[in-house]
Amino acid sequence: MSRPTIAPELLAALTGDAPKRLIRKLDEDPQQAAGWEWVEAEGAWRVTSPKGEVVELRHALLSEPEHVGCSCLLAPRCLHLLATLSVLELAEEVPGEADASPAEGPPPEAGSLETGSPEAAPAGLALSASQRDAAERAWRAGVELLVSGAAGAGAALQAELLRSVHAARVQGLHRLASSGLRLVKATRELRSKSASGQLTALTDEAARWLEAAWLLRREGGELAGALGQSRRSYAQEGSLRLWGVASEAVLSRGGYAGVVTLLCDDEGRGYTLSNVRPGESGRALGAYDAGAEVGDLALSHRELGRAGLILQGATASQEGRLGSGKSVKAVRASGAAWGEVLAPWLKRALAEQAAEAAAALDLPPAERRAGSDLLAGEARVLGASAAALWLEAWAGEGAHHTLEGVVLNRSPALPALENLKLLARSPGLRLRWLGRCDPLVPGRVALIAIGPPAEEESPQEGPRLVLPEAWGGRCNLSLDRLSGANLEGIQRTPHRVEASAREDVDPLTLVRRRLERLALGGRSTLMGGVQQSVARDRARLSGALYGAGGVLLGRLAAAAAGEGRRVDGTLSPPDVEGLGRAFVAAATYERAARRARWAQGWGACAAGADA
């Protein structure tokens, strides 16, 4: 049984009631309870501290004070209880706020197949006074996070952020609430000094949180797409005819492992089924052969990714996660050739696919529709360089583009890296591929699956990919293990190629680095002698024709500096409004400018030389 999750408002309330001395002790070691003894019995958990105090967690979703308790006399205002609750996952949904349906595993991670899309709010509606107050509270909490930085955001500041999230939920500011919850999760990961913590995610969520709050509180009170809509976990989809596309190993930042399978309908609309549980990377291979339960049908993910599926009474989340409730009726159907399944992608030029993926990438990872950031095509293997497989991909209209194929799951327990090395020993090999485009580097694709190319009238010359019939014309690179028998004409060693020339320095990295340092380390990262370094960055941006970025970087540094240090050496109060606005402006500029560069790079596909 997975450990319980905790409602953000309960954690905020208990943290707010705790004495300051306990908060200080918790901040000194926020992960102390992770090493205590955790025992599950009869649907409840008992967590025993080194000195013998026992914390009880009595519900799968801890949302009420009576769901938790501690054997010590100070409970519930005790360190044992607070430390235990602080290492639990924050719940995405709480009772009464959404139509809940059981979902497998944790919330989807960035970089998995399991992602979705938001629903826009109607524009032109005025905010109420209470909604404006909630937005104002969120803005202040966000700026306070910028002042201290995530590294200095202790339990008290996290509690204020969680209270702001709860206030936003209550007032119907759904997009603000979901962004705030992701921001708190990213902050907790970084403060836990976990290798899973991602500074990129923290910076992006801080920008989204402050941007949404600013749009909601600005003069006039008009909504500008920032309100969002209450997220329903699962909604009725009726009857569905789906085709298995591919399966992928999932190694989550929170210590979960498993597999997720992507399916699509005739129009290419994506859906997913997953088997993700707490565990190490090796668990993914076990989950691959375990049942992907949907309705009354039990089918392994290995089979599901290659078969067809007919559903009646289907339910699915906004991002395409299929429900597995008792009312769902499922029947296995015949699959289709992989080329037919990939037809929604293959019928479009690579540059066109990339342009649509770019629109999806502008959304938070948890708000992209399943498969919306994927690309597919045909290519010829060139060889290997470092951990990349270089491909010459057909881009349409007689053009081609050199792609850098990588894999996300590099664990030795999974076959992904070994599969790439084997493919690199077959220069000239033609294949079909499915992958996820890199949001930062045009031409880089995280490969998910490969298969033989379309059949030709005459036999193909050179190396050939020969897959077992049971594989359905595709190899899931992170789960299926290739061997030399699958590659005719394979060489003894990988064919080495020179990496495609890329611009050595991306000028926009100068802006991004400052934003990330501010989000992590706070206001002090832009003060003192740093001002001279900022001036150099501004000059380099201007020289690279990104002068607006230099101006915004200068404003950010000026707002952070405020009046400098007091006589006693402490930092003076920052320009709160200026710091928040400058951060949002610089982050918005960097995101838009980087996306334009990214789209330009993919646009080169259509201008390639004749294949």
3D structure, described in words:
It is a single chain. This protein starts with a strand and ends in an 8-residue tail after the last helix. Helix content is 34%, strand content 20%. β13 and β14 (388-396) form a beta hairpin. α16 runs antiparallel to α17. The protein has four domains: 5-90, no CATH class; 129-217; 238-502, no CATH class; 508-603. With 611 residues, the protein is of the alpha+beta class.
SSE blueprint and pairings:
Elements: E1 5-6, H1 8-17, H2 20-28, E2 37-41, E3 44-48, E4 54-57, E5 61-62, E6 68-70, H3 79-86, E7 89-90, H4 129-148, H5 155-170, H6 174-191, H7 199-217, E8 235-251, E9 256-264, E10 270-278, H8 283-289, H9 301-304, E11 308-316, E12 329-333, H10 338-341, H11 343-346, H12 350-361, E13 374-385, E14 388-396, E15 399-406, H13 416-423, E16 430-437, E17 444-451, E18 464-465, E19 475-476, E20 487-488, H14 508-521, H15 530-543, H16 547-561, H17 576-603
Parallel strand pairs: 1-5, 1-7, 15-17
Antiparallel strand pairs: 2-3, 3-4, 4-6, 8-9, 8-11, 9-10, 11-12, 13-14, 13-16, 14-15, 16-17, 17-19, 18-20
Helix pairs in contact: 1-5, 4-5, 4-7, 4-14, 4-17, 5-6, 6-7, 7-14, 7-17, 12-17, 14-17, 15-16, 16-17
Total count of helical runs of at least 4 residues: 17
What does the main sheet amount to?
5 strands, antiparallel
Determine the mean pLDDT.
83
Overall tally of domains: 4
Radius of gyration, rounded?
Answer: 26 Å
